[in-house]
Amino acid sequence: MIPDIEAFEERAAIAEYDGGLSRKRAEDVAAQGQGFPSRQDYWAWLAEYVLTERLPP
Asked: Residue 25 and residue 30: Cα distance in Å, rounded?
């Protein structure tokens, strides 16, 4: 499954602005909403997908 980038960005923005979270924490929340443990895992998955043009394991 490819993560939904638009949903990620929207959820992070809402968590940041309406929830008062830092951007990093808001991205953690958004990543967790898509099944990733953290924002780092989310961005690493996307980077690997872009570089290899294959779905990461």
From this structure: 9
Q: Cα-atom radius of gyration of the chain, to the nearest Å? A: 12
Asked if 25 and 14 touch (Cβ cutoff 8 Å), the reply is no
The answer to whether 31 touches 21, Cβ cutoff 8 Å, is no
30 CB-contact burial (10 Å; exposed 0-12 / middle 13-18 / buried 19+): buried
Structure tokens at 1: 């499954």
Distance of CA 47 to the CA centre of its chain: 12
Interior CA angle at 11 toward 10 and 17, to 5°? 85
Residue 1, pLDDT > 90, answer no
- Is the pTM of the predicted complex or chain greater than 0.85? yes
